Amino acid sequence: MKSFAFFLFTALSAAGLSAQAQTAPAIAQAATGTQTVQFKTSAVCDMCKARLEKSMAYEKGVQSATLDVPTKVLTVNYRPDKTSVAALRTAVLKTGYDADDQTADAHAYGRLPDCCKKTAAAH
Ligand SMILES: [Cu+2]
């Protein structure tokens, strides 16, 4: 019984160590100066998600971009020495989507397929 308790303790310690190892990359990323910003967009579906994430990936200074379709929130990891929140917001607008209280670029919005328009029902 005592040896089982020891095994359990060892297993828990190992789990704790691996959890620590997993958080290490996030700390390293912060050390390189990456920042995160979130925009509330007008995206409606997975096509919007793919379009926005691809568009942001081509944007200078962007490390990663993820859209959560249910909440329409776009999370962008970026390098503040390469770009700015204003530039990133403009990139969202020029892809055809609203960003927070700013309305999408009309031309870009017009090029979106009907299913990606703000009037489209969730699908
Ligand atoms: Cu869409």
Automatic annotation (TrEMBL):
Entry-linked Gene3D superfamilies: 3.30.70.100
Occurrences of domain HMA (ranges): 34-100
Signal peptide: 1-21
Keywords per UniProt: Signal
InterPro entries in alphabetical order: HMA_dom, HMA_dom_sf
Name of the protein: Cation transport ATPase
Organism annotation: Hymenobacter caeli
